[in-house]
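Researcher: Quick test of sequence recovery. Tokens follow.
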């Protein structure tokens, strides 16, 4: 069976995912995309073997079995609600927005839809989810990003925090994953994914540093659980198009899509 894939958001992530599917992934076919600028999206698909139409975000479900959400967090519900109401699978990258729209889980349950959150720019979510089955005492994550990858975050603007021209690392946030997702909706979807895999958004704690000494988006996670104690660190190379996004994120989406259609699945 071939699964139809539509992509909502045709930026740094969406274009990479679309390109891979167009080149050929067994069991998957690209059927539609959605973008702010339809003409620009069409131009970006000029080299595709099978260009697809650009349709409104809320209509993607009609052309797909799976809708991959790569759009700004503010548009999450516009894409996800109609797709889930029609029994589609939604692969959500803006999982920070999911924390404030958890009623969509009930909507999916009622209509046979599903919400899938890929690992994105994070690592070890399978270990966190497994540990949660036996009980987790604490989960703490420290994120370090180059200042330019944090510019424009609502939390910085609301609290008048200036990170321009930093010469040394500056801790700009400490709090819960829920607070981090609201304050940095384009920067730390990883915090929401970590919270959903483990002990929830109000018990998972986060630090965010603007660090002029790093060139990569870095996340370090410490987990204390009944079954294991473990720590993990990942350093993601930012995309040229969007410094807030790591190159690993679209590759994680592709790997997750392959799990849905492939005959062999590795990992929890």
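Model:
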């Amino acid at each position: 069976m071939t699964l139809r894939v539509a992509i909502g958001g045709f930026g740094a992530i969406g274009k990479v995912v679309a390109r891979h599917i167009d080149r050929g992934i067994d069991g998957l076919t690209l059927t539609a995309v959605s973008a702010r600028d339809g003409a620009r999206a069409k131009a970006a698909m000029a080299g595709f073997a099978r260009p697809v139409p650009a349709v409104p975000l809320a209509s993607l479900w009609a052309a797909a079995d799976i809708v991959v959400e790569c759009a700004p967090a503010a548009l999450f519900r516009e894409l996800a609600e109609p797709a889930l109401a029609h029994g589609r699978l939604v692969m959500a990258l803006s999982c920070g927005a999911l924390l404030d729209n958890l009623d969509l889980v009930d909507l999916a349950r009622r209509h046979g839809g599903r919400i899938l959150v890929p690992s994105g720019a994070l690592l070890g979510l399978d270990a966190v989810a497994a540990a949660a089955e036996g009980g987790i005492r604490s989960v703490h994550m420290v994120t370090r990003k180059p200042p330019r990858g944090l510019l424009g975050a609502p939390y910085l603007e609301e609290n008048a925090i200036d990170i321009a021209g930093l010469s040394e690392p500056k801790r700009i946030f400490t709090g819960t994953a829920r607070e981090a997702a609201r304050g940095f909706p384009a920067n730390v979807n990883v915090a929401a994914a970590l919270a959903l895999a483990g002990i929830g958004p109000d018990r998972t704690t986060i630090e965010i540093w603007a660090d002029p000494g790093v060139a990569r988006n870095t996340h370090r996670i410490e987990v204390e659980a009944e079954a294991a104690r473990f720590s993990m660190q990942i350093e993601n190379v930012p995309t040229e198009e969007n410094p807030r996004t790591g190159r690993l994120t679209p590759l994680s989406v592709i790997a997750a899509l392959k799990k849905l259609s492939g005959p062999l699945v590795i990992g929890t």
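Residues 42 and 231 are 43 Å apart (CA to CA).
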